[in-house]
Each structure stands twice: as structure tokens, then as C-alpha cells.
Design brief:
heterodimer, A: 160 residues, alpha+beta, five-stranded mixed beta sheet, B: 28 helices, 29 strands, 42% helix
């Protein structure tokens, strides 16, 4: 990928940096570029919607609107967490939606040179959700693709 | 297509001008010589012509120019506005509109040529030349030339302020025209014009109003909704603190005011759609050769903009129907002893949180027998069922899809889609339609439209400890089914739950099972439930829920498309407690559960389960009087009152009730009033009944139920017994209302109860 070639040729000299919001879902860390995030809402208990597609984590009240949330736990095949969770409000062509995560950790400034693309061995289900991973000192920070998480995208993917 | 701001401004302005012109044209037919009307029409066309020259719309300019010539003659009194000329001007209007539309969608005025239209407009000018020899052709031609010279001056000042410039450049007589109607017209004409249009408005209105994007209003509405919720939470959080309570009260009031104002900002008067009707009526009555006078009332009634849009089609359909099927041809009307001119009346009036829109005509009315025949013929109804329906019920059948009683299909209507569309469209926005008709007298179609879509009244219901909002519009009654009842209230035919509601089987839908099909605990009807009886899109069914909450005015929030696809919810809302609730869509639920249209549904039910003599069954109000069951024919019951026993007064030792200024005799053979007076609560229940022309009250212990009775035959007689009836498999006596003695006429025998004497 373009990013990688840039990283190897130009090294850290003119390396660009990205602000990434890191979140925890189950045992792993995930990241989202903060420019896609409208707002972070902590400790909400979404209201379940009967008969909704399984990836829908429920509804939350957000700024006078009713926001549909996407359950990161469902997408990662983790058991649901019956406790208040945090929500990242993301903009999408079909309107804003919420991404339901266990907790928000911190905002990191990371050198784009540390970003590696998805490994070829990654399963099909996750391929559309991840854009790559940052190599942190102790672990990996898997970057999420806001477009792939859009409920509209997910429901068409589910129907197909 | 890209349109620059100036063009867009021009389009909006021209369209408004043309709307006014249309209005004035239809009025011009009534008052052909009205100078103010002509001036208004002239101005609309002139403004368009002036601006098109500047914007470079040649086709539009040519057409407007032709129109202006004709209008100039009319205005100067050289020509009279005959119906032919008005027709030509209306054609001109349509032509101008069509070009404007093309500009709006494509950005250019299109390649069409309007030669024939221009020719026909020019042809209208000729009669004058032949009749009026003093007016040489040149004189006519010179007028437009003068005007086009003036037009060239317009562009110079245009870029700065396009709007105000157009009127100063109009001819002097026009500039003084606006104030004229008020001063010149006789009072009754002025009043008439006030209901139909307000000519002086345009210039004044543009100064005190401004255009606002609907999206901005929607955003404001959303923010206000959020403010309302925050306020609710603040009110709860500060209830302990005296100082804060005053502040939060104030916040409460301001929020309520703000909400109302923002809602008002979305409102538009119904005249916005009513004003399209004179033209429609004119064109249709010409096409159908009817003589029709249109009367409109309540045009300043306000309605939410989106709702106004939504009722445009139903209203048009209704007007078409009224003209085509309702009002008869003049000859036929005269034969029937009516005025040859029919009256079509549009009326809008606000009734609480609804706006009632009525379309009534004084035409032939709907022949109920024909409705019945047609319904049976088209298989919409079985003959047995049809025999049972009352006139009003039969009339509502015309709303079923594919129904038309018109003997032949005309260009205007009769294909049997109109009324179906009317109902569908009106119900989609939470409204209701009904029709009333009297043969020979006319037909009235009533549409009840909620004031706004953004906030609707709803009942909160609970299912599996979750809250849902049920729109009140579809709700017809609520039933409580307690767990302890001896006979199971909910009966089953295989998998289908049913409830006996006043002798008829009502299909039920269990909300919990509908929403969680997987966890299907077989018939656990052990606990108490509530049944909400719903009427949706002509389907009638009972929705079974675990509990009822409060009725609330809810702010409707749209759902994301991923959730819209589920199809059972029409939106979501945030309740006063901060909890989210999904708004149930009664129509969609009925469809999902396979509930069929009421008419054919009931037909099969009746033939299937009630083979017995249904036709003779009448409904009765079942009451208990001091431990004894008794029945009152439901048709005679006017209302049931619960009131303090002290309200009963005595006249000539007969108990009477002074109710709303009217005195009615009260029947109390069981001495319930005395008994109630001796007890603490001292309240009694009085069933007010109609007995011929008078009203009587009957004191009862309890009101038990409403049930269909079956007639009983005394052994050896063929006539049914008059005083007893079989109700719920028990022989029950019918209360004889005639037995209640009338009010004493001899005043001297009245006791000295002052309240009765006065």
C-alpha cells in the first residue's frame, strides 16, 4: 500500500502523524481516526430493538435524536456485555450512527509509518471492518474502517 | 442542474405571481370588470416578462409578451374579459408554468415553440379591432413597444435588488392599484375577496416575512425536543431545592413557549392548497358541463407544512369526485327542483389537536343500495353481511380499493381508485376520513388531520417490561382481561387467539410474541393482560399488551433505515422519564399478523360462527340494579353519568335530575339513591336514556357490559317476547322506559325544593 512504501522510503523524517482514538472491546484494542468521530458519549445503556438486525446494539438518545448503534461486540463475535457502554458517534452518508464499545481508552498521536495493512490471512468477515494495525510497544492497535461499520453497509452485507 | 441564486429567486417569485394570477383569473370570471384583479394579473405577467429579458429566457419572454398585450387591452377597458379570454389566459398561465418547471429541472427553458399558444392569445385581441374601428392596429402594437423600451431599463438596477425593482417599473396605474380594492369595492365584495384572496398582500407580506429553509425548521424542532427532555430531567433533579425550583419553573415555561412558537413556524394556512381549487373547479365544471359555485371557509386554519403537502392529492380527488359523481348536470338539477347551480363547499376548521377538512356538495348523494349491490357484485362483501350493515357502514365501503358506483368511467373519475387513495393518504399521516351522504341532498367527505406530525398523542403500553408508543389515532378502545375470570376471555382457534367483543370475534395479536417469535411460551394467558382495540387501514384487531402506561404527547423521531426495514415501527420517541420507546405502526402490525380488511373479515366470521339468527339481534347495555340484572337497548342509551347522590332533587316526591339546565325524571325503584346517601361516598350511576322525545334517567348499581341479545319466544307464540331478552345466555328483563312517569305538570303539587322551582 501507499502508506507502507512511504514509510519505508522516507522513514521518520517527514513522517505524518494521525490522531487516533483507542477503544477497548473485549480483550483487544481498536482505533478510529478522530476526524471521523463527532462525539464520544460515555456510559450509556442502549435500548434493544425487537426484531432488529443482530448487529444493531440498540437505540440511544443523542442530542434530541434517536441514534442507532452498531455493536462492536457482535461484529467480533463476542458475547454481549450487559452493562453501560461507551459510544463513538460517527458520521455516515445515511446520517450519524453510534459505535458501541466497552470503553474509550485515550487519544494517541501515532506515526503513520507504524501502520501496517491487514494481513492476507485475515478472515473475510473482518476484512471489511479493519484498515490495518498500528504497532504499539506492547500490543497492536487495530484500525477500524468507519465506512465498513455503517449500519446501511452492514445490513446490505447481511442481506447478501 | 445548477441554477444560480438569481434564477432561483426569479423562479420562486414567478411561481408565486402565477399562483396569484390563477386566483385572480378564476375570480375575474365572476367580476369581469374588476380593475384591481386585472392589475394584479397584469403585474404577474409583466414581472415575468421584465425579468426574463434580463436573464435571457427568450421563449418565456415571447409568451409573456403575447399575454401582456392581451392583458393591456383588458386593463385599459378596450376588451371585456369573456370566458373565452379567461380560458386563453389560463392556457397562457399553464404555458408559463410549464416553461418555469423546465427551467427549474433542466436549467434551460427547453426547445419547445409556443407558436400555437401565442397565436391563440393574439387571436383574442382581434374581435376588438373589428368592433372598434377607432382603434387602429398600430395603436395596439405601439403599446408593447413602449413597454419593451421600459423593460430595457430594468436590468441596470436589477443585480442589486431584483425584488423591489420590478414593481416601481410597472405602469403607474398598477402602482396605485393595491390599495384600491379596499376603498373602491362595496363592502360585501370586499368581504368576499377577503375569503378568496387578499390582493394587497404581496407587497406588504414581503416586508414582514422571510423565507426559511424547511431543513432549518426541522433542526429547530429537534433542538426544542432535546430542550424539552433536558428540562424534564432538570425538573426532576431540582425538585428538592426551593431556589432552583423557581428557576426551573421559568425554564419550563420558556421551553413550552418556544416549542409552541417553533411548531407555529412550520404551520401554513390551508389557503395554500385551497387556492388551487377555484381553477380545478372551473376546469372540471367546464369539462363536465356542470354549473358549480365554490364556497370556501376557514382558509386561515393552519396546518403543518408536510401535512399540507400530504392532503393536496386527497383533496383534489375529493373535489373531482364531488363534481363528477356528486353535482348533477344543470337540467337534472332543475328537474329535481334544485338551483341549476350546484354548490361545492370546502371548509377547514380546527378542532382541538386536529384540523377538520370538509368537502361537501349539494348533489345527488350516494345511493346506498347501489353501494351494497356493487360491493356484493365485486365480492367485497357477502350478501348476508351486507344485509346487516347500517347505511353509514355501507357508505364507508366506498373507501375500499377498486370500488366505484359510477355507471361509466369518465375522464375525470370513476375508475374506483379515488376514494381508496384518499383514505390511504389521509391515514398515512395519522388522519381519518369518513363520508356522509343523503340521497338527493348531497355528500360530505370529512378528513380529520392531526395538526402536526412531529408531535402526536400516543398511549404508552408495556410488553415484557419494555415501553412502546401506540398512536391514539388508531386506538378505538381498551379492554382489561383479568387473570381470575372464570371463563377464559381469550379463546383459540388452533393458533389464532380471539376475543369476544360484544358478541363479535376480534382477532388478537400478542405484542410480545410478535416481537420475539423465538421465545414462544405456549399459551401463557395465566396473567392479566390488556387489549388495545385498533382500527388501522380498515383492519380491526386487538393488540395484547402486558400493561398500560400514561397517554403522552410524544415527539416523533425518525429511525435509521436499518431499523425502518423491520417495518413494524414508524419511529421512536423519548419519554418524559428519559426512556426511549419505539412507536408501533398499527397498520404494519396488522399486515404482518395477517389481519384482513374488516369488511370481508367480518363477513366470514358471521357466516362461520354466528349462524344463528343474527339479523334479529340488537345490542343491549347490561346493568345491575340492586343485585338484579337488567338490560337497556343500546340505541336508547345517550350517556352514563356518575354523580353525587345529592344532585338528585325531588319534584312532587318524584326524583328528578337537573342536568345541564334540563330536567329529567329519574327512575329509582330499588331505592339506590337513599342507600347511596347513607353511605360515605354517596355517588350514584345514572344511565340517561332516550324514550321517544323525552329523556329519562335510570339509577343503577353497576354497568356490566354491552352484549348482543337474542330474542326469546314464549311457548305457543310466534311473536318474540317484548320484555325479556337472552343476554350472555341468561334471560334478562328489558327496562321499560315508558314506565317512568313523566314530570308532574301540576306545579302546585311540587315539593319545596328551591333548586327545582327556579
Amino acid at each position: 500500500m501507499n502508506l507502507r512504501s512511504k514509510a519505508t522510503t522516507e522513514k521518520a523524517k517527514t513522517a505524518s502523524f494521525a490522531d487516533v482514538c483507542s477503544v477497548r472491546v473485549g480483550p483487544s484494542l481498536f482505533g478510529l481516526p478522530i476526524r471521523h468521530i463527532l462525539e464520544i458519549v460515555g456510559s450509556v445503556l442502549p435500548q434493544a430493538v425487537p426484531l432488529a438486525p443482530p448487529f444493531v446494539g440498540g437505540l440511544v438518545h443523542y442530542r434530541g435524536d434517536v441514534l442507532t448503534t452498531v455493536s462492536m461486540r457482535f461484529l467480533l463475535s463476542l458475547p454481549p456485555l450487559h452493562a453501560p457502554q461507551a459510544i463513538l458517534v460517527l458520521e455516515s452518508p445515511g446520517g450519524a450512527f453510534g459505535l458501541l464499545v466497552d470503553s474509550v481508552v485515550e487519544v494517541l498521536t501515532l506515526a503513520e509509518s507504524d501502520l501496517e495493512p491487514n494481513p492476507a490471512t485475515l478472515g473475510d468477515a473482518c476484512k471489511h471492518l479493519f484498515t490495518g494495525a498500528y504497532k504499539l510497544k506492547s500490543n497492536l492497535l487495530v484500525m477500524l474502517d468507519p465506512e465498513g461499520l455503517d449500519p446501511l453497509r452492514l445490513s446490505t452485507a447481511q442481506a447478501a | 442542474m445548477q441554477i444560480d441564486d438569481l434564477t432561483r429567486e426569479f423562479l420562486i417569485e414567478s411561481q408565486e405571481g402565477l399562483d396569484r394570477m390563477e386566483h385572480c383569473l378564476t375570480e375575474l370570471e365572476v367580476r369581469p370588470g374588476d380593475a384591481a384583479l386585472l392589475a394584479e394579473i397584469f403585474r404577474a405577467v409583466h414581472t415575468i416578462k421584465g425579468t426574463t429579458g434580463f436573464l435571457g429566457f427568450k421563449r418565456l419572454e415571447k409568451l409573456a409578451h403575447a399575454g401582456e398585450n392581451l392583458l393591456g387591452l383588458l386593463r385599459d377597458g378596450k376588451l371585456d374579459a369573456s370566458p373565452r379570454i379567461v380560458t386563453a389566459l389560463l392556457q397562457l398561465l399553464d404555458g408559463l408554468r410549464a416553461i418555469l418547471k423546465t427551467i427549474e429541472t433542466e436549467g434551460t427553458e427547453g426547445d419547445g415553440v409556443d407558436l400555437s399558444l401565442i397565436a391563440s392569445i393574439e387571436a383574442m385581441q382581434s374581435p376588438v379591432q373589428q368592433l372598434d374601428g377607432a382603434l387602429p392596429p398600430r395603436a395596439i402594437k405601439s403599446a408593447p413597444r413602449k413597454r419593451s423600451a421600459r423593460k430595457s431599463a430594468v436590468p441596470k438596477s436589477f443585480p442589486l435588488a431584483p425584488k423591489p425593482v420590478s414593481s416601481p417599473h410597472a405602469d403607474p396605474p398598477i402602482a396605485v392599484a393595491p390599495p384600491a380594492p379596499a376603498s373602491v369595492r362595496p363592502p360585501e365584495q370586499a368581504a368576499e375577496s377577503a375569503t378568496l384572496s387578499s390582493p394587497p398582500a404581496p407587497s406588504a407580506a414581503s416586508e414582514s416575512t422571510l423565507r426559511v429553509d424547511v431543513a432549518l425548521l426541522n433542526r429547530l424542532m429537534n433542538l426544542v425536543g432535546e430542550l424539552v427532555l433536558t428540562r424534564n430531567q432538570i425538573l426532576q433533579a431540582t425538585s428538592g431545592d426551593a431556589g432552583m425550583t423557581i428557576l426551573s419553573r421559568r425554564l419550563d415555561m420558556v421551553t413550552a413557549d418556544l416549542r409552541e412558537s417553533v411548531m407555529k413556524a412550520r404551520m401554513q394556512p390551508v389557503s395554500n392548497i385551497f387556492s388551487k381549487m377555484p381553477r380545478l373547479v372551473r376546469d372540471l365544471s367546464q369539462a363536465l358541463q356542470r354549473q358549480v359555485r365554490l364556497e370556501m371557509e376557514g382558509q386561515d386554519t393552519d396546518l403543518d407544512k408536510s401535512l399540507l403537502e400530504a392532503i393536496k392529492d386527497p383533496l383534489t380527488h375529493a373535489v373531482r369526485n364531488a363534481l363528477d359523481h356528486g353535482i348533477e348536470p344543470p337540467a337534472q338539477r332543475e328537474a329535481a327542483g334544485k338551483n341549476s347551480e350546484g354548490v361545492l363547499r370546502l371548509r377547514a376548521v380546527q378542532e382541538g389537536s386536529h384540523v377538520l377538512i370538509e368537502v361537501s356538495d349539494d348533489g345527488a348523494g350516494i345511493a346506498v343500495d347501489r353501494v351494497r349491490e356493487k360491493a356484493i357484485e365485486r365480492g367485497l362483501l357477502s350478501a348476508e353481511r351486507a344485509a346487516l350493515l347500517g347505511e353509514r357502514e355501507l357508505l364507508q365501503l366506498i373507501f375500499l380499493p377498486g370500488f366505484s358506483t359510477a355507471p361509466q368511467i369518465t375522464r375525470v373519475s370513476g375508475r374506483g381508485v379515488g376514494m381508496d387513495v384518499v383514505r390511504t393518504n389521509v391515514e398515512k399521516i395519522g388522519g381519518k376520513v369518513e363520508i356522509d351522504s343523503r340521497i338527493g341532498k348531497g355528500t360530505t367527505l370529512r378528513m380529520r388531520i392531526p395538526l402536526t406530525l412531529a408531535i402526536i398523542p400516543a398511549l404508552i403500553v408495556h410488553s415484557r417490561s419494555r415501553s412502546f408508543a401506540l398512536p391514539q389515532g388508531a386506538l378505538s378502545e381498551l379492554l382489561h382481561v383479568s387473570a381470575e375470570e372464570d371463563t377464559p376471555a381469550i379463546e383459540w382457534i388452533d393458533d389464532a387467539p380471539l376475543y369476544r367483543l360484544r358478541g363479535k370475534l376480534l382477532p388478537l395479536v400478542f405484542l410480545d410474541r410478535l416481537l420475539a417469535p423465538a421465545s414462544h411460551p405456549a399459551s401463557d394467558t395465566g396473567h392479566e393482560v390488556f387489549i388495545a382495540v385498533l382500527d388501522a387501514d380498515g383492519r380491526r384487531y386487538g393488540l395484547v399488551v402486558d400493561g398500560l402506561g400514561d397517554p403522552e404527547e410524544i415527539v416523533v423521531k425518525p429511525l435509521s433505515s436499518a431499523l425502518k426495514d423491520i417495518g413494524l415501527y414508524s419511529g421512536a420517541t423519548v419519554l418524559g422519564s428519559g426512556e426511549l420507546a419505539l412507536i408501533l405502526d398499527p397498520g404494519a402490525i396488522a399486515q404482518r399478523a395477517g389481519i384482513r380488511m374488516a369488511a370481508d373479515d367480518e363477513a366470514t366470521l358471521n357466516t362461520g360462527t354466528e349462524k344463528s339468527d343474527v339479523a334479529s339481534s340488537e345490542e343491549f347495555l347490561l346493568v345491575e340494579i340492586a343485585g338484579r340484572r337488567a338490560a337497556v337497548p343500546l340505541g336508547d342509551v345517550m350517556r352514563i353519568e356518575q354523580l353525587p347522590a345529592r344532585r338528585i332533587e325531588y319534584a312532587a316526591s318524584r326524583p328528578v335530575l337537573n342536568f345541564a339546565g334540563q330536567l329529567l325524571p329519574v327512575e329509582d325503584s330499588a331505592g339506590l339513591i337513599e342507600e347511596a346517601l347513607s353511605r360515605q361516598e354517596a355517588r350514584i350511576i345514572v344511565v340517561v336514556c332516550r324514550d321517544g322525545h323525552r329523556q329519562v334517567g335510570i339509577v343503577v348499581s353497576h354497568v356490566l357490559d354491552v352484549a348482543a341479545g337474542r330474542e326469546l319466544f314464549e311457548a305457543g307464540k310466534s311473536e318474540p317476547a317484548e320484555s325479556v331478552i337472552l343476554l350472555k345466555e341468561q334471560v334478562t328483563g328489558i327496562l321499560g322506559l315508558g314506565g317512568v312517569p313523566p314530570l308532574p305538570s301540576d306545579t302546585s303539587s311540587w315539593s319545596s325544593t328551591p333548586a327545582v322551582m327556579q
